[in-house]
Amino acid sequence: MIRAVLIDNEPLALHYFQNKLQAFQQIQVMKTFTSVETFLQELPTLEFEAIFLEVKLNELTGLEVADIIKTERPYVSVIFITSHQEFALQAYDIGGLDYLLKPINHARLEKAIARIEHEYSIQQLIQKASKTMLNVQCFDQFAAYSNNSLIAFKTEKTKELFVYFILHPNIPIHRDYLIEILWPDLDYVRAKSNLHTALSYLRKTLSNIGYANCIVFSNKYYIFEKPNILCDLYDFQRYYDDFSKQEFPPISLINQCISIYKNGLLIFDDYEWATAYKDKLTKSYIDLLEKGFQASILTDTSKALEFLNSLLDFDPYNEQKLQHYLHILINTGLYEQAYRVFQDYEQKLKEDLGLSPSSTLLEITNKFFIQK
């Protein structure tokens, strides 16, 4: 049984739609609301897997309500019911599962219910898998979990070896290469012995949590045959691959990648061999920020500023991006904030590089800041 909530500020429309849902035994309407405020007050105690809501509401729009829901409960299926077709693209960008135009016929509603059932079954499998599968976190601090319990590795080198395998699945890796990157300061015989010990510890650890025989050795090469695991790095790579194939990727996909990336790969694990891998992912992250800025500049000023601010964190001396930043702030009337941003840039440029802002940037300051 899929639990559902309905929101529509028109009581008659709400009652009519609730009656239509009675034809579907797999949907249980838990509660209906004509007030967004009341819904948000009760939200912490409400349990539901699907929500049907009108786009045009009073206190907030249905799009804003959906954004709150998907942020707090990403597993919930959001279905819009409305007479306004012009908000469909925004609805799907937020993560809406379906967009139904009133009046809704039975066949169209049946199709929407089928989508909800499919999404629900996927979420059930994910939740079940998360309790039984190995869950590996590569972004921020590396960690591995089994049945929601943190896995303790026998030694730091055992953990490092596992990290290397996670980052290089299904790739033949020569034994001597592993020795070279993990024990560069030891003689070959001792380093080889350490590798065999670390492998023994790692195999035992993986076997104890149900992943035996995923490390294969053949003709001096090791292969980590990627088992069925959850891994944020693999999720990022899959989503970024989808992003790269699209000329105009949706903002929801960009945000999804960025939320996984967090602060970067293995930021608390200083593995020299991982530097190139980290740099590659950083370039991907900057690409996401660039596309995010381009996608939001005309529709969401505050979001565009967030993307620009993140870009400047990576490249604080990039004057072109700084000019974009200042122009947005100035165009929205935030002169004091723009001036503070310029002052911080001017000071950093002088202290770090012994340089002054370009004539173009100074022209902007003279034109807007001195006059205000």
TrEMBL record:
In its UniProt entry, what is this protein called? Response regulator
Where, per UniProt, does this protein localize? Cytoplasm
Identify the keywords attached in UniProt to this record, alphabetized. Answer: DNA-binding, Transcription, Transcription regulation, Two-component regulatory system
Instruction: Name the source's superkingdom.
Output: Bacteria
Listed InterPro entries = AfsR-DnrI-RedD_regulator, BTAD, CheY-like_superfamily, OmpR/PhoB-type_DNA-bd, Sig_transdc_resp-reg_C-effctor, Sig_transdc_resp-reg_receiver, TPR-like_helical_dom_sf, WH-like_DNA-bd_sf
Q: Which SMART domains match?
A: REC (SM00448), Trans_reg_C (SM00862)
Identify the residues that the record assigns to the Response regulatory domain, covering every copy.
3-117
What Gene3D superfamilies does the entry give? 3.40.50.2300, Tetratricopeptide repeat domain, Winged helix-like DNA-binding domain superfamily/Winged helix DNA-binding domain
Give the species: Lysinibacillus pakistanensis
**Mind telling me which PROSITE patterns this protein's record contains?**
RESPONSE_REGULATORY
